[in-house]
Structure formats: C-alpha cells, structure tokens
Design the sequence.
C-alpha cells in the first residue's frame, strides 16, 4: 500500500503585474494556509518520504511552508514538468520513484490537480487553493499507480480548518 498526498499551491498574489505567472508569490492568506496544511500532515502522521513540487514560486513556497510545519526534513524535489501539469505528468513523475518510498506528496496547480484528485477518487471533487488530498494506492510499486485502485482517505480544505 502506498500513500499519495496532493497539495494545491496556496493562494497567490496578483499585486505585481510585472511578474510572470511562474514568479508570483503567495499572498497573506496563502502564507497562513500553507503551514496550516502542513500541520494537518504532521498531526495525521502522514509526513511524506519525498515532496515533488512545481517550480513555480507559489508552489515552492507552499511546499516549503507545509514541509516545515509537517516536520519534513528532506529536500523538496523541484520539477519543471509539474508547472501547470496535466494529471498524467504527476503520474509519470510518481511512477519513477523508488518503491522503498511509502508516502509521496506532490504540490502543483489546477486544473491538473483537481482532475487528478477527481480521477483517483472516481468522482468530482472541488480542489481550491491549499486543498490537501490523501489517497491510499493499492500497490507496492509506484510504477503501477496509474492502473492500481485508489481510495480517497481524506480531503482537507483550508477554509474548513480556520
């Protein structure tokens, strides 16, 4: 059994119109929500073995703040292919991970994240900024994630935790 955590980046700022989409930082609400979701990860004792994050600033900042609050101590792996990725890009990135890892977290963007959550859950789930989903994947190999059965264990929305 594998555990997959999916975390959408927290709310970003649109204040500086000169920044590219890739370089937008978190806004005040996002800076609060990211560690709150990391706290959930730590409280639920589901700290990942590895975190894969989009290279976008808002995703990196979310990953870093959540990781710190969760007690994650390893390096966060930044992946360009997760920037505005389709669901298949997340599955592809996960499928190359060592099978010794039991819990993996991906930090990324909609619409790909919401589509992936809904696909793995077998039904539509809204996935707003800073939402966190926990899945159990019925496999011993990350290479089989795409074909293995999965179960949505929990879905945490930041506004519900305020």
Sequence:
């Amino acid at each position: 059994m594998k555990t997959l955590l999916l975390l959408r980046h927290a709310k970003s700022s649109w204040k500086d119109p000169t920044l590219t989409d890739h370089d937008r930082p978190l806004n005040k609400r996002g800076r609060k929500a990211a560690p709150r979701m990391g706290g959930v990860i730590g409280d639920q004792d589901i700290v990942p073995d590895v975190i894969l994050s989009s290279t976008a600033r808002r995703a990196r900042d979310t990953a870093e703040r959540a990781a710190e609050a969760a007690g994650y101590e390893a390096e966060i792996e930044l992946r360009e292919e997760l920037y505005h990725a389709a669901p298949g890009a997340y599955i592809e990135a996960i499928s190359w991970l060592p099978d010794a890892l039991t819990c993996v977290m991906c930090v990324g963007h909609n619409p790909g994240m919401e589509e992936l959550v809904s696909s793995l859950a077998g039904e539509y789930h809204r996935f707003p900024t800073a939402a966190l989903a926990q899945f159990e994947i019925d496999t011993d190999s990350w290479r089989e994630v795409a074909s293995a059965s999965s179960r949505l264990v929990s879905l945490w929305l930041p506004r519900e935790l305020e």
Observations:
- The mean pLDDT is 96.
- The longest helix spans residues 28-43.
- The first strand starts at residue 2 and ends at 8.
- The domain at 2-161 is CATH 3.40.50.1240 (Rossmann fold).
